[in-house]
Amino acid sequence: MSLNSSTLLNEENCQGPRRNTERLESLELQTPSSFQDNPLQQLQLASQEVLEKAKKTGRSKCPRCSSSRMFYCYTCFVPVETVPTKEIPTVKLPLKIDIIKHPNETDGKSTAVHAKLLASDDVTIYNYPCIPEYEEKRHEIALVFPGPNSVSVKDIALHLQKYTKKSVCDNGDDCSGEPFLKQAKIEPKEEEKYLNECASSNGSEGSRLKKIIFIDSTWNQTNKIITDERLQGLLQIELKTRRTCFWRHQKGKPDTYLSTIEAIYYFLVDYHQEVLKENYKGQYDNLLFFFSFMYTLIKNAKCCAGK
User: CB neighbours (10 Å) of residue 150?
Assistant: First the structure.
């Protein structure tokens, strides 16, 4: 997935903080009327005043590696010195997230770091090919990636039944360890009914999924990762109804192809409503804390330039 953040905010060159500050200050415009259709406007976000102040100040040092960065260090996953950690929201997630980053994905253009910054306790970023083995836990793990066999979020519980260690025989029935479809010839509708009953009898649907995996890469680079044998056999999830707001959307790709932080956010919203069966009240909106701020900056800049 393309996870590129704004080149405007990530120019890692030697032109110094003065030019960067002047460029950012030129974006301090009133929000144009075209923003009325901005889907990010309805987010329940923490105050972004700290980012506004940092924008005026310009680049600052990373407290760990001392590199000059804007807002946060995408190498150390920490805010810069002018962005106090206490002023950055923390988001608690209902499950763990693994992000697999393509080796050619530019650190400074990745939105995956937003998830690590804002939900550090629940997010782990791996640099491919150094990724975990998932085979033993595939009954409680899913991968967000579109494909011919991908399913919607609301069907996660149903399909994970096929991956449980005890197959679909958690009711105590003796299935002799054989896969469900090999034991009897059952019509597809009957199979779905049976699996739904199993899901209900095994307690909360939401407790089945414990980890979700996202790929951090441009869409043209994903093949190397998605075909890795360690990811084969995992349940694949597709977010078919969401539209990207990403300012670096890849040409020729449908607008349902999301940036990584968008995919994480929209998956969690759908999961909260469709699987946990709870009302969504903005619990994960702050995952877009940095994304929405950058979106506004870029949108304003384009409007100012007449694009």
Answer: 18
